[in-house]
Every structure is written in structure tokens, then in C-alpha cells.
Amino acid sequence: MQEPEADLELLERAARHAGQIALGFWRNDMRSWDKADDAGPVSEADLAVNDMLRDMLTAARPDYGWLSEESEADPSRLDARHCFIIDPIDGTRAFIAGQEGFSHSLAVTDGEKIVAAVVHLPARNTTYSAHANGPALRNGQPIAPSDTGIDGATVLTYRAVSDPGHWRDGQVPPFRREFRPSLAWRLCLAAEGKFDAAVSLRLAWEWDIAAGSLIAERAGAAVTDRHGDRMRFNGPRAMVDGLIVAGPRLHGQILSGLRR
């Protein structure tokens, strides 16, 4: 059995290769199109990165399952103790638009838990990483969330979260709302305290949040779904019911303010 440290080293190597491929397409002519069922855009770069990652990672760990946004569902992953959970390019719209805020999100599970994780932003030369037995790092340096309370907190989320219908007695907390295109990056930004929290009240695909959830947890943030429950991964639906990622004090204040 591989240790999380060894899996993390593998993910870091793979993420660097992914970045090289992505930057070869970025801000150059490339094909992109919309997926069926309003599932968002995809580009030839997404597929090229996905193919490389699958070849590299499954060759190194042939007994691991595979779950990726850009691969056909493989139910055999549910029988594997370990599984790769991958978003080849998170923030594809930003990538296609030539913006820097896209990332590669790579994670490994042990059962329902994430044990190794990398979020790599090649255009920003930034890599977040963690494994289950060590600290969360940004470019090799330890990170930690903020210790702020909800008054004046800066929360990475989308506009609809400010709808009074989501909050007890219609009282929207006095936080400032910001947005970044990659959900994986949002979790990492909350983990390092550049923003105070990342919140989503929508169902989230596992590949968008698997890596960032471990990085935030190992940084010292409280990481749960929208109901305050522990996230579980490599499930049949491959979805988590929302997310709240913040320092423990702010996390508790957000959770207690939500209508549930």
C-alpha cells in the first residue's frame, strides 16, 4: 500500500506536467465547445490534460480507481480502496478567456477520505498541496486560515448566497462577497487566509472540491458540507451537498446563520 506522502509526490509531478500542457494551449488558438445538458464548456486542452493524467497516474497506481470530470463514469472505482479524483482544468471558462485563474485539481482517496491533494495554478506559478499526515503548503510554505468573525468577513461565493431566503429570519450576515473562477482555488484561498471563507449552497462535483478540501483541512480550516457534515468522497453520485470552508469561528457563525 502506498503512503500518502508517496501519492502526493506523484500528484505533484503529474500537476506540473498538466501545467505544461495547459500553458501550451492557453492564450493560443484552440477548439472549445459546450457540453450537453448545460454542463459547461470544455476545450481540447481539458481533454489533452485529462488523457495525460490518466495515462500517468493509472500506470503508476493500476489498482486505484479513476474519477474525472472529462472521463466516462467507471463504476469499478466504487470497489477500489483508493481512487484518483481529478479535474483536469478547473475554471475552464477563465482558461478559454485567457485569464490566470484556472487550476489543475488532483486528489487521492482512501475509502471516503482524501489523503493526498494538489491544486496547481500554472499561469500563476502557484501550487497548494497537502497529505493526510502533514501540513498544507503553498509553494512549499505552510498556510493557515484567518481567525476573523463574520462581521466584515470576505467570503468567496456567488451572488445567490446573499439571497435572504438562505438565512435564518432572512438575515443575511454582514460579509463581503468575492468570486474566483476555480472552485478548487477558492478553497485554497480560504485555507491560506487571503479570503476568510469559501461557501457554496449548491451541489458540488467531487472533482471540483476533493483536493481543496484536504488542503483547507490540513491548514486548520473547518471543512464541511452546507449542513455541517463531514464530506465523503468517491460516492456513487460523485457530488457533495454544498460546502463551508473557513476558520473554525467563522465556520460556526456561517453554519448557525443558514436556514436548514
UniProtKB/TrEMBL annotation:
UniProt GO molecular function: inositol monophosphate 1-phosphatase activity; metal ion binding
* Name assigned to this protein: 3'(2'),5'-bisphosphate nucleotidase CysQ
Keyword ATP-binding set for record = no
- Residues folding into a coiled coil are none
Gene3D superfamilies per record: 3.40.190.80, Fructose-1,6-Bisphosphatase, subunit A, domain 1
> Which organism is this entry from?
Paracoccus onubensis
Is Calcium set as a keyword in this record?
no
The UniProt record gives the binding positions of Mg(2+) 2 as D90
Its keywords, alphabetically, are:
Magnesium, Metal-binding
Needs which cofactor?
Answer: Mg(2+)
Signal peptide extent = none
Q: Which residues bind Mg(2+) 1?
A: E69, D87, I89, D208
Q: Which PANTHER family match?
A: INOSITOL MONOPHOSPHATASE, INOSITOL-1-MONOPHOSPHATASE-RELATED
GO BP annotations of the record are: inositol metabolic process; phosphatidylinositol phosphate biosynthetic process; signal transduction
Q: Which family does it belong to?
A: Belongs to the inositol monophosphatase superfamily.
